[in-house]
């Protein structure tokens, strides 16, 4: 009678370590347990995406137990230290993928944009591991939500900036707080214009990497991007010389920019300094309404914009439903829909008179 204890387990079963599975069996099974970072949109709920990505053969508790057992095991039956290190590394990666975005290492997600009469495209965005307060290293749901709506603004609240033969598309669009660059890169593709992506100096290297990573896509769709450091309220060391000449931009875009009580005033000042001083200039802002804190920050931003020397007033606004990923991806509270508020601001009066 054949001894079945050394046979590889069926594909839908996790191997038992007491059976001393081979290096090849362990590595193949660990790779199959990979959980891809979610890419969500306004039409498919994050809950649905996570269900589609879930491993159906075993519940999460069993998988976590399996991974933990591998990490704690000395794996003495494997042939070499290199094999053991590789298995431990893969098991650790699978564990971190199940502990929320903050526990993950570097990831790259590809964000799709559907055909709006000009062909589909997608953008590849690298997100380094999140450390400290470097929240700009994460792609926030609002960036994708607003990016998917950009084509609607060219026939809506921003139509006057895109009229053929009039202003045409703005020669340059400024994005404040670009983070990983998804919104600004999408704007260059959708609006076929030049977009300047900006953020803190510590965020700029990854931002520049993503601009380079997507250069062929942007160029192919008639856009252009450049990356520069711009710290709101910073000194000259924190601001690229290109911003020393003030009030250059007809259009500024910004998504999910408020995380601290100081941010509304800092952002409002940065907008006032960079936005052109004519009544046609516009600012497009998106702020998720996650809780009372973010709602309060939005209210403060509106007040600060209205206090500027040339007041900036909200001319159009709406809320769209969206999804965001933060925290433990298996926490039901994190799967609730988020209302993404957007507003278009303009100068309250002409300063040219």
Tell how many strands the DSSP assignment holds. Answer: 9
**What is the structural class?**
alpha/beta
User: What helical percentage do the residues reach?
Assistant: 25-40%
In CATH, the architecture of the largest domain is 3-Layer(aba) Sandwich
List the domain count as a whole number: 2
What general form does the structure show? elongated
How many helices does DSSP assign? 11
CATH topology of the largest domain: Rossmann fold
Uncertain segments are 1-9, 42-47, 52-58, 327-335
- Radius of gyration (Å): 24 Å
Beta-strand percent range: 15-25%
User: Would you identify the CATH H-level superfamily of the largest domain?
Assistant: Vaccinia Virus protein VP39
What pattern of helices and strands is seen along the backbone? HHHHEEHHEHEHHEEHEHEE
The main pleated sheet reads as: 7 strands, mixed
Name the features.
two-stranded antiparallel sheet; 2 domains; 353 residues; alpha/beta; disordered N terminus; Rossmann fold; 11 helices; 32% helix; 9 strands
What does the model show?
It comes from Chaetomium fimeti. One of its GO terms (cellular component) is cytosol. This is Methyltransferase-domain-containing protein. GO terms for molecular function: S-adenosylmethionine-dependent methyltransferase activity. With 353 residues, this protein is α/β, with parallel strands linked by helices. The protein has two domains: 17-98, no CATH class; 107-347, Vaccinia Virus protein VP39 (Rossmann fold), CATH 3.40.50. It is 32% helix and 18% strand. It contains eleven helices and nine strands. The strands form two sheets. A seven-stranded mixed beta sheet has the order 5-4-3-6-7-9-8, with helices on both faces. The chain has a two-stranded antiparallel sheet with strand order 1-2. β3 (172-175), α7 (182-191) and β4 form a beta-alpha-beta unit. α3 (60-72) runs antiparallel to α4. The protein is elongated and about 75 Å long.
């Amino acid at each position: 009678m054949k001894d079945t204890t050394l046979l590889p387990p069926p594909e839908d079963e996790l191997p038992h370590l007491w059976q001393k599975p081979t290096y090849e069996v362990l590595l193949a099974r660990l790779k199959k347990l990979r959980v891809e970072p979610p890419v969500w949109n306004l039409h498919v709920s994050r809950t649905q995406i996570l269900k589609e990505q879930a491993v159906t053969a075993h519940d999460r508790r069993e998988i976590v137990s399996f991974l933990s057992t591998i990490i704690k095991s000395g794996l003495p039956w494997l042939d070499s230290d290199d094999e053991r290190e590789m298995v431990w590394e893969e098991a650790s990666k699978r564990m971190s993928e199940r502990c929320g975005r903050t526990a993950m290492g570097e990831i790259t997600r590809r964000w799709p944009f559907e055909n709006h009469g000009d062909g589909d495209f997608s953008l590849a965005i690298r997100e380094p591991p999140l450390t400290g307060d470097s929240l700009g290293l994460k792609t926030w749901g609002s960036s994708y939500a607003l990016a998917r709506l950009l084509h609607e603004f060219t026939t809506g609240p921003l139509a006057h900036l895109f009229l053929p033969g009039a202003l045409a598309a703005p020669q340059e669009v400024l994005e404040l707080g670009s983070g990983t660059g998804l919104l600004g890169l999408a704007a260059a593709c959708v609006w076929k214009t030049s977009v300047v992506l900006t953020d803190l100096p510590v965020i700029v290297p990854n931002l520049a990497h993503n601009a380079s990573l997507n250069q062929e896509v942007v160029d192919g769709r008639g856009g252009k991007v450049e990356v520069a450091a711009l710290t709101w309220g910073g000194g000259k060391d924190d601001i690229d010389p290109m911003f020393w000449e003030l009030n250059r931009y007809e259009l500024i875009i910004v998504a999910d920019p408020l995380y601290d009580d100081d941010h509304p005033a800092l952002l409002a000042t940065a907008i006032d300094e960079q936005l052109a001083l004519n009544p046609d200039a516009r600012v497009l802002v998106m702020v998720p309404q996650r809780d009372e804190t973010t709602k309060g920050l939005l209210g403060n931003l509106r007040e600060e914009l209205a206090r500027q020397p040339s007041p900036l007033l909200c001319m159009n606004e709406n809320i769209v439903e969206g999804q965001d990923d933060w925290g433990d991806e298996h926490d039901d509270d994190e799967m609730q829909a988020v209302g993404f508020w957007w507003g278009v601001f303009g100068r309250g009066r002409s300063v040219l008179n």
